[in-house]
Design a protein that fits this description.
Layout: H1 11-34, H2 37-46, H3 51-63, H4 69-78, H5 81-106, H6 112-140, H7 146-178, H8 183-205, H9 220-229, H10 231-248, H11 254-261, H12 266-293, H13 296-314, H14 323-355, H15 361-389, E1 394-402, E2 407-416, H16 418-432, H17 447-458, H18 462-495
Antiparallel strand pairs: 1-2
Helix pairs in contact: 1-7, 1-8, 3-6, 3-15, 4-6, 5-6, 5-8, 6-15, 7-12, 10-15, 10-16, 12-13, 12-14, 13-14, 13-16, 13-18, 17-18
């Protein structure tokens, strides 16, 4: 059979394979950047997409994960993860080329439904390729360097993303000012190039060796029930599902809010996105190193509260019409969220790999992806509905100063449409964090110990000190505030 797995891989084969995976990650990132969220949302808005349709667009990547059962079926039948990954990736990238060609045939009358149709198959085949790729990489990458390797791969990919995003944003805004009639076709060309880059990534992926895997010879439904009977893995599923639901109810609409409500152009939005990516690039290596040395759960407990603070901060964006004030707040939000997201996402991926038994990794990971996808795909749909519901509703909190020579009104909080949605998302993420302590991970170290060690390590690197150490201090401040609030509440109850 083509792409026949090997019983064992030599050290040189593993080394060459990992280098190829790094190159494949760069090429795949080129595809992701060209067809990225901000550009795809802008494209959908040009075609006249509604809030619900944008929510549906955001839910497709996770909704299609429910078809990952097909990946397990194919691997059980052929026992060839590389063949499944390569063939499904080819079938996934072709719809992206067709999506890009759509405006050249239908112009600006291209229906949003056709866009969603092509994206469905793009994500559908990608979701089938995902579990086989994850299980393949789990056996290829040595267990003691999972965090370091994937943080390095992510850092390289994000660096490329930054460079490409700057070029694309400047080009699109230049054309929008000087030749707006071609804007739609620029996006279309980008998406066609994305599909071609994705096909090039498949060529690299096909060259990565695969160690042979052995799946238990038992009923496939019984195999899928097994992870659900694993109490610790079950607790991870509860936390991961709730967290993704809370995050995805608001996150997909941040770009829409900046485009439609704040009226920002890509010249502003892409640099903000790049700030987030740079923050991620500068810190993900440290998150990966400390996750490997201590535990992924500890990294989540440090990073996740910082992301919650960022979601809350979105409620205050746009309170004042001053552009500089809004951009300054947005810059801080993107820097902090970039770093915290990098740590949280890396740790969530690695803890799933770590808790999954090697011989049943694809089953455990598929169950995890399928269950979490249900919650994360429902969230943007509900978010789109809530955004429409709150369109005509508003909550304004103001403070007034009245004096003999001065009367001044200060706007403290303004909730409307998107801001309501962001506040709901922040509350849900706080609730989700309550399920994290129940998850058990081998080698787990308390976050206070890890924060103290990280401070000591980071003082030797000025750049990272300003990014990570400040975040750790913020995290400590948040914890102290919460403890103070609890103490005040307990004291009040005792007085009563």
């Amino acid at each position: 059979m083509i792409f026949t797995p090997k019983e064992t891989l030599t050290e040189q084969e593993v080394k060459d394979g990992l280098n190829t995976v790094l190159k494949e990650g760069m090429t795949t990132e080129a595809m992701v950047t060209l067809a990225g969220g901000t550009f795809m949302v802008a494209f959908a808005i040009i075609l006249g997409a509604s809030n619900f349709q944008i929510g549906l667009l955001a839910s497709l990547p996770t909704f299609t994960n429910i078809f990952q059962l097909l990946s397990v079926f194919l691997i059980r039948k052929y026992n060839n993860r590389r063949a499944v990954s390569v063939i499904c990736c080819i079938l996934a990238r072709i719809p992206m080329v067709l999506l890009g060609a759509m405006p050249f045939f239908l112009g600006d009358n291209a229906p949003v439904s056709l866009l969603l149709f092509f994206l469905f198959f793009y994500y559908f085949f990608g979701s089938i390729a995902g579990p086989s790729w994850n299980a393949w990489m789990k056996d290829l990458v040595p267990g003691d360097m999972l965090g370091a390797f994937f943080s390095k791969r992510s850092r390289y990919a994000q660096t490329l993303n930054v460079v490409l995003s700057i070029i694309l944003a400047l080009s699109i805004d230049y054309l929008r000012r000087h030749a707006p009639q071609y804007e739609l076709y620029v996006y279309a060309t980008m998406f066609m190039m994305a599909g071609i880059a994705g096909l090039a990534a498949v060529v690299l992926l096909a060259r990565v060796p695969e160690p042979r895997s052995y799946l238990p010879n038992e009923n496939i439904l019984k195999m899928f029930v097994k992870p659900l009977r694993d109490n610790n893995f079950q607790r991870l599923l509860v936390f991961n599902s709730f967290w993704l639901f809370a995050v995805n109810i608001a996150t997909p609409f941040f770009t829409v809010y900046m485009l439609k409500t704040l009226g920002l152009t890509l010249t502003y939005i892409i640099p903000l996105t790049i700030l987030s990516q740079l923050s991620s690039i500068f810190t993900i290596g440290y998150w990966g190193k400390f996750a490997d040395r201590y535990s992924n759960k500890t990294i989540i407990s440090i990073c996740a509260p910082l992301y919650v603070a960022c979601v809350i901060a979105w409620c205050f964006v746009g309170i004042y019409t001053n552009l500089i004030s809004n951009l300054a707040l947005l810059a801080v939000i993107h820097i902090v969220s970039g770093s915290s997201n990098a740590g949280t996402n890396l740790a969530l991926t690695n803890i799933g790999l770590k808790l999954a038994p090697s011989r049943e990794a694809i089953v455990y990971l598929s169950v995890k992806n399928i269950i979490t996808s249900v919650f994360s795909s429902l969230a943007p749909l509900i978010g789109g509905y809530l955004a429409d519901y709150y369109t005509l509703r508003q909550l304004r909190v103001i403070a007034e100063w009245s004096g003999p020579n001065l009367q001044k009104t200060f706007r403290l909080l303004l909730l409307h449409e998107w801001n309501f949605l962001f506040l709901i998302g922040a509350v849900l993420t706080l609730v989700a964090l309550q399920f994290l302590p129940r998850v058990r991970e081998a080698g787990e170290v308390h976050k206070s110990v890890v924060k103290r060690i990280m401070r000591t390590s980071l003082k030797s690197n000025l750049r990272d000190y300003f990014v990570i150490d400040v975040l750790i201090n913020w995290h400590s401040s948040l914890n102290n505030m919460l403890k103070s609030d609890r103490a005040s509440s307990d004291a009040a109850q005792q007085e009563k």
